[in-house]
Amino acid sequence: MRRAKSGKRITRGLPELSNKHIGTKALRDIRRQQLDTRLIIPKLSFQRLVRKIAQDFKSNLRFQQSAILALQKAAECFLIREFEMTNLLAIHAKRVTIQAKDMVLVRRLRDMMFNHGAVGL
C-alpha cells in the first residue's frame, strides 16, 4: 500500500475491510437460514437420490409424494443435528472450523449411545 499526496492510503482496487466486518455476511446468512423453515436440499435432487438408492434394493418401487417429503424432512433434521454436534466438538477443541475428526467422533458417540446401550454419554 502506498499513500497518496492527500495522505489517504491507496489500495489496488480492493476495498479495505476492517476486522469487525469480516464474517458479517456469513453470520447474516446463518441467522437468515436458522429462521427459515423451508427445506434446504432441492426436492427434485433429493427425490432422484431416494429413487436411485431404493433401486439398489428393489426395482420398480413407487413412492407417494408425501413419503418422499417425510424422508427429506427426516434426513435434513438428522444432518442439521449432526452438524450441530460436530460444531460443538470443534468449539470444545477451541476451534472455529469443523474437521472430519469431529464428525467421526460424533458418529462414534451416537453409535455408543444408541447401539451399545451406553448411559450418560
Secondary-structure element string:
EEHHHH
Helix content: 55-70%
Round the mean pLDDT to the nearest integer and report it: 85
What's the helix count? 4
Please state roughly what percent of the residues sit in beta strands, choosing from under 5%, 5-15%, 15-25%, 25-35%, 35-45% or over 45%.
under 5%
Shape field:
extended
End-to-end span in angstroms?
Answer: 53 Å
What is the count of β-strands? 2
Low-confidence stretches: none
Q: Which structural category fits the helices and strands?
A: mainly alpha
Quaternary structure of the protein: single chain
Q: What is the second-level CATH architecture?
A: Orthogonal Bundle
Largest beta sheet: strand ordering? 1-2
The CATH superfamily turns out to be: Histone, subunit A
Largest sheet: 2 strands, antiparallel
Search tags:
3% strand, 4 helices, two-stranded antiparallel ribbon, extended, Histone, subunit A, 57% helix, mainly alpha
